[in-house]
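User: Fold this; tokens only.

Assistant: Input:
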Amino acid sequence: MIDRRAFISALAGGLLAAPLGVEAQQARVARIGYLSLVSASADAANVEAFRQGLREHAYVDGQNALIEARHAEGASERLPALAAELVRLKVDVVVASTTSAVRAAQQASSTIPIVMAFTADRRRRRSWLEATPRVGRWA
């Protein structure tokens, strides 16, 4: 089984490599939306591991990448508004940390790629992947 740090590192590199390959010549900053149900303090280790994974793939927050993190502080009813805010910010991708965050991101946009990062429920994750018509799905 792959450990969390290796998974996050692979996720970070993979989610940004394809859409930014052509635009890399233009020194474009990747805007990454990060949507979480929990508080920023409770999610700090995951966010730092995600930043580290990005750094390992030459994306540095504040230089050539900008992470727009939004935390619902445990209130799932806040997720739709936070997801809509990320859409208004025109992020290139949304990284969602729970199935409820994925659902909110899907409802906010049908065009922005969504990455389900930390969902522990394998059965639900598989059913979401099978029901979502996207290229590059991981099971």
